[in-house]
Structure formats: structure tokens, C-alpha cells
């Protein structure tokens, strides 16, 4: 079997996406043969967690240590250079298909209680393609006997065909962005950049944007536009996602460096397990849900 596990191809009227079982995320997404995410081969490890689901926390947890319910918990570091636990626990697990059609696939993952996170979860994601592009609907249940802390993010790397990242214009519907220390942990906030469509140029971003502004349907929309308005790509997210993390891929290796823009819809910011900012507390039996998607201009 390929390193990224079992694969499911879903399609609809020119839209096509490939979903991988390892990480439970999107590996490829295209419209009429044009790729709109920076994917990877099925026998590769997903570079930079490309497409993966990030749960039960997105981003970094400083020192991997947090308190919840009167107890201190210690997570293993998986980014030793910053001494942090990064991107949760389900990104390298195998997800199982429970419902497959031509245009949609639903995957499930059971996260067992374990040292550092002694809270069992049942996760389900329905990936689909349709008239609006790619859509992901996430459902997470606390199947344990006690309340648990929870957050979720997803890690697609966006691309615009026929142009480079430096040529793209970015619009982020946010009022604030987080500042960070040398370990990339939040240490404050400031007025958000890119509130209007602005060239990325040589700007380096590994930044969480908050206070998202929403349209009449209550969705927040981040928009990428190519030179001369030739291509446009929108990532939208519902009210369960209060943050967008934007990363210009500067620390990726080889030709992936600054080739794409990671835009991560997140329910909470990095280090929320310690700060508590927008961290969800799931009661036993409680269900959390959130929906987001990617829409190229057709």
C-alpha cells in the first residue's frame, strides 16, 4: 500500500479531489485539470502536513504541557527545535471510509485515550465536490466519560495555476493577527495586514489571523487572486472556525519552498491548550461540527 494509504477519487462536472486515508485529508484538488492545491504523490509522506486534519489541537502547544480539569498533562514534542507539540494526534493515523459515492467520501477515525491526552474521540469528515468546489464537513464526538479540551484545523496548501506566490494578491477577512516569539508561540496581537487585496511579494507569513469578518451567510472568506485577475481562489469557513493561519511555505524543502500558500481554517489559535483562547470543552457525548471549503472561480 502507498505511504499515504488508501485513496478515494471523487469528482463532479470537472471538479476532482483525491482523499488519502493517512491523515484523513485532501491530497489533490483540481478543476478541469488545473490544480488548486499543492499536492503530493501517493507514495510520499505528506510534506508539511499537507492536507491533513489537525486535531485535537491545531498549531503548537508550548513545551507540550497544559492543564485541564485540575490535572497537568504532558504531550510529546514532535517539533524539538521549538520544544512544542504540533498539529495534534490524528494527522498520521489511518482513517477508514464509511460511505463512498462518486462525488463524496466520508472517513472516520477513532482516537484512543493516551498519555498526554487521556480523552477518547470519534472523528468523522465528509469530503465532497459539487457546484461550489471542494467542501469538508467535520464532526467530532467525545466518547469518553469526562469532559475534554478540543480544537481542530486543516492544512491545505493553495496554488494558483500559471503564476508564482510572489505574484498573488491576498485578502484576509480579519481585524487582528497574532504576534509570536522565537518559538512561534503567540505573545500578543496587532492590527491585521491584508484586510484589502494586497500583493504577497516577498512577505514572510506564518501567522494566525483572528476576529474574522463574515458575509451575510456567516462564512468568512479568504481570497487569493492571480496577476491581472486571471485566477481567483476562495477558502471559506463557517462560524466554528474563528481563525485562519497563513503560511508562505518558507521552511519547506526544495522546490516546495514558497511555492504555495497554506491556509488553515482553525477553531482555535496555536497554544490554545495552554491559553484557553477559543478552546472547546466537549462534554461526554457532545458533538462538535464545522464546515469549510475551497472555491476556484469557474
TrEMBL record:
Instruction: Give the protein's recorded name.
Output: Aldose 1-epimerase
Q: Which domain of life is it from?
A: Bacteria
In terms of SUPFAM superfamilies, this protein maps to:
Galactose mutarotase-like
Entry's Gene Ontology molecular function annotations: carbohydrate binding; isomerase activity
Q: GO BP, one example?
A: carbohydrate metabolic process
What is the originating organism of this protein? Stackebrandtia endophytica
Q: Which Pfam families match?
A: Aldose_epim
Amino acid at each position: 500500500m502507498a505511504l499515504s494509504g488508501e485513496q478515494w477519487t471523487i469528482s463532479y462536472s470537472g471538479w476532482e479531489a483525491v482523499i488519502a486515508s493517512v491523515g484523513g485529508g485532501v491530497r489533490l484538488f483540481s478543476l478541469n485539470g488545473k490544480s488548486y492545491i499543492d499536492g503530493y504523490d501517493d507514495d510520499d509522506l505528506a510534506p508539511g502536513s499537507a492536507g491533513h486534519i489537525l486535531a485535537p489541537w491545531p498549531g503548537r502547544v508550548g513545551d507540550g504541557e497544559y492543564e485541564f480539569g485540575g490535572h497537568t498533562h504532558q504531550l510529546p514534542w514532535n517539533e524539538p527545535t521549538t520544544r512544542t507539540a504540533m498539529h495534534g494526534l490524528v494527522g498520521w493515523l489511518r482513517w477508514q471510509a464509511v460511505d463512498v459515492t462518486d462525488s463524496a467520501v466520508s472517513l472516520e477515525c477513532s482516537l484512543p485515550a493516551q498519555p498526554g491526552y487521556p480523552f477518547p474521540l470519534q472523528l468523522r469528515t465528509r469530503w465532497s465536490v459539487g457546484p461550489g468546489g471542494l467542501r469538508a464537513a467535520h464532526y467530532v464526538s467525545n466518547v469518553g466519560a469526562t469532559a475534554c479540551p478540543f480544537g481542530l484545523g486543516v492544512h491545505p496548501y493553495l496554488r494558483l495555476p500559471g503564476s508564482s506566490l510572489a505574484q498573488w494578491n491576498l485578502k484576509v477577512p480579519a481585524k487582528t493577527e497574532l504576534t509570536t516569539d522565537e518559538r512561534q508561540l503567540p505573545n500578543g496581537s496587532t492590527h491585521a495586514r491584508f484586510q484589502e487585496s494586497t500583493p504577497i511579494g516577498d512577505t514572510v507569513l506564518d501567522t494566525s489571523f483572528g476576529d474574522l469578518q463574515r458575509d451575510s451567510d456567516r462564512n468568512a472568506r479568504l481570497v487569493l487572486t492571480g496577476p491581472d485577475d486571471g485566477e481567483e481562489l476562495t477558502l471559506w469557513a463557517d462560524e466554528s472556525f474563528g481563525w485562519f493561519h497563513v503560511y508562505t511555505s518558507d521552511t519547506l524543502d526544495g522546490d516546495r519552498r514558497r511555492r504555495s500558500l497554506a491556509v488553515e481554517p482553525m477553531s482555535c489559535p496555536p497554544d490554545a491548550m495552554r491559553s484557553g483562547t477559543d478552546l472547546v470543552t466537549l462534554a461526554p457525548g457532545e458533538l462538535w461540527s464545522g464546515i469549510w471549503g475551497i472555491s476556484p472561480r469557474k
